[in-house]
């Protein structure tokens, strides 16, 4: 601890201005940022060396400000939509524009339709209109998925600078979600070139073994955003991909053109 006033020879950057409570908040947020599937209260308390009751109070406050989201069913905590930060108004406008379009696509194809944006090194789901069928693929609003294993992520990444894509892949580590997941940066960049050429991205059992998903980027927005349609592979055969992609592109253009 510094007990005397610093002399002129002391560097100001040697002073410790840290605040313990802020350090704890940063530790919690860093832990959540590193996890795609979420972190339990016990894991957070252990990692931050906080009593469980104290960790809960920190999380409760962060959740109140939407910086953390809690999955009550699974008991897991994730980063929340508050981290879209100063873009929160743009996010809300985009969500409002997209909702009726997503509902129309769901009714047309009978499958789950998603709106997502880039947040950190993941794609975060802003809006989801679930299929009415009992067996369906559906994430939850606020859920995150890796860029390298999802059609939504590929559609977004395809239009980012290559250097940034490489940085995001390093940050995520490109873990294999299934035997079909692309885990090589070189192969992934080749895949993104295909996305740009054909105008849509495909997840063919790469995030979930029996799942298939098609996605397109939303043009002309300030946010890196995309639309996707996901379904069990048995209900979304490869011969239907082009038809779904065409409908998604038209929907994305409609969202981009809607005033608001």
UniProtKB/TrEMBL annotation:
Residues 75-260 form the IclR-ED domain. It holds the Pfam family IclR_C. SUPFAM superfamilies: GAF domain-like, Winged helix' DNA-binding domain. GO terms for biological process: negative regulation of DNA-templated transcription. It comes from the Bacteria. Keywords: DNA-binding, Transcription, Transcription regulation. The keyword Phosphoprotein does not apply. Residues 19-81 form the HTH iclR-type domain. One of its GO terms (molecular function) is DNA-binding transcription factor activity. PANTHER family: HELIX-TURN-HELIX TRANSCRIPTIONAL REGULATOR, ICLR FAMILY, HTH-TYPE TRANSCRIPTIONAL REPRESSOR ALLR. This is Transcriptional regulator. It comes from Actinophytocola xinjiangensis.
């Amino acid at each position: 601890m510094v007990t005397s006033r610093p002399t002129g020879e002391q560097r100001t950057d040697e002073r410790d201005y840290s605040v313990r409570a802020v350090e704890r908040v940063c530790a919690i947020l860093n832990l959540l940022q590193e996890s795609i599937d979420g972190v339990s209260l016990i894991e957070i308390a252990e990692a931050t060396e906080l009593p469980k009751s104290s960790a809960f109070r920190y999380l409760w406050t962060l959740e109140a400000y939407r910086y953390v989201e809690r999955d009550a069913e699974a008991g897991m905590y994730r980063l929340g939509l508050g981290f879209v930060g100063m873009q929160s108004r743009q996010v809300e406008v985009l969500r409002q524009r997209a909702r009726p379009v997503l509902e129309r696509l769901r009714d047309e194809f009978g499958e789950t339709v998603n709106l997502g944006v880039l947040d950190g090194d993941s794609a975060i789901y802003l809006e989801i209109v679930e299929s009415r069928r009992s067996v369906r693929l559906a994430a939850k609003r606020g859920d995150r998925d890796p860029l390298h294993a999802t059609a939504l992520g590929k559609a977004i990444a395809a239009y980012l600078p290559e250097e940034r894509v490489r940085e995001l892949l390093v940050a995520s580590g490109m873990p294999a979600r299934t035997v079909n997941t692309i885990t090589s940066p070189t192969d992934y960049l080749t895949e993104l070139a295909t996305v740009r050429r054909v105008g849509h991205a495909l997840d063919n059992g790469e995030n979930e073994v029996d799942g298939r998903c098609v996605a397109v980027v939303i043009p002309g927005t300030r946010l890196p955003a995309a639309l996707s349609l996901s379904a069990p592979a048995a209900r979304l055969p490869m011969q239907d991909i082009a038809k779904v992609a065409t409908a998604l592109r038209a929907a994305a253009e409609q969202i981009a053109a809607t005033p608001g």
